[in-house]
Amino acid sequence: MAKKMSGFTIREIELADALETTHQELDKIINFFDSDPNDQWELRENDHFIYLNKRLNERLFSEHGAYAIAKYIDEQIPKSIWARITEFITRHKEKIRNAFISRKIQENSSSLTVRNNRHFLSKKDIVNILCTSHARLNKAFEDIQKSQEAMKIGEDFDDIDGVRYYSLFAFYKLSQNLGEKLTAKDRRSWCEAIEVVGKKTFKLIIDQETARQKRIDSAMNAAKKRDGSCCQITGKKRDKFNKTVNIVVHHIYSQQHYPDLAASTDNLITLTQEVHNEFHAWNGGFQKPATAENFIQFAQELYPDNYEIILRLNQIKKILIS
């Protein structure tokens, strides 16, 4: 059976720092607990600590274990460190809580979108991040709308394709309201921490997405150059004789459903805007997943004379899905 690690989060070196001692001195204190079976001091494995490396006596402590060591030092050494270890445990718990919040944000940010130069998040994702209910979030929204800090439609909130979205600014206002109004202390502290942790986490997400989009744009430019800005289905290109032709770059395996392939030039092909729209209409819309197999079937049915594109798409399929 796998060893239960939850609850054992304090490393020896962190505990030594909190106790204002060295790692070596802490090790001596730890060893003392086991030296006399007749005294009151005892560190119990799977209660006070677990081993990270038993051969090296390297441990991870629980809060219970950290307090046990602090209690021993407090009674044996003529200076009190009880307040210090209590402060350390509090900060340590806050770090772990904040890590959970950041993870919750990362797992519930797929709806993040830009609208009117602001980042918006769906109501569903916000409910999940705040660990609340739709009804309770509605109540927080109503409270804010009755105040002097009422949110503005189109700026702080909006409905996108029938789904309610809130700006990140509004998201923080909602979390602040819940942090003030919720009755459960742990739920209040969770919501109170959202703004600080959220700003750091969303900056990481947005910066990462910006860098990813730059890689995709670069790959699309490279693909267009490779294909001579020419439609690989019809052979058309924009020139002085065809000024209305618009060449676009198509993701063979759709960007939304195959994000790992989004910046691969092998996954990109140039088409006229008309052919691009035609394919997605044939495939069921721009939101439907698209694959090389879909595009091969499309080309076979609507452009059966273009053998070259079928050969190329089959080669691409082997390269990308191997």
Structure keywords:
322 residues, alpha+beta, 3 domains, 4-stranded antiparallel beta sheet, 3-stranded antiparallel beta sheet, 9 strands, 13% strand
Give a written overview of the molecule.
By secondary structure, the protein is of the alpha+beta class. The protein is built from eleven helices and nine strands. The strands form three sheets. Strands 4-5-7-6 form a four-stranded antiparallel β-sheet. About 55% of the residues lie in helices and about 15% in strands. The longest helix is centred in the middle third of the chain and has 42 residues, at about 185-225. It has helices at about 10-20, 25-35, 65-75, 80-105, 125-130, 135-145, 170-180, 185-225, 275-285, 290-300, 305-320, and strands spanning about 10, 50-55, 60, 115, 120, 155-160, 165, 245-250, 270. It has three domains: about 10-105, no CATH class; about 110-210, no CATH class; about 225-320, no CATH class. The model has no long low-confidence stretch (mean pLDDT about 90).
For the termini, the CA-CA separation is 36 Å
Indicate the percent of residues in helices: 40-55%
Largest sheet: 4 strands, antiparallel
User: Which class best fits the helix and strand makeup?
Assistant: alpha+beta
Q: Would you report the number of β strands?
A: 9
Strand content: 5-15%
The backbone outline, from C-alpha atoms, is elongated
As residue ranges, the low-confidence spans are none
Kindly provide the radius of gyration, computed on alpha-carbon positions and rounded to a whole number of angstroms: 29 Å
Mean pLDDT: 90
Query: How are strands sequenced across the largest beta sheet?
Result: 4-5-7-6
Order of helices and strands: EHHEEHHEEHHEEHHEEHHH
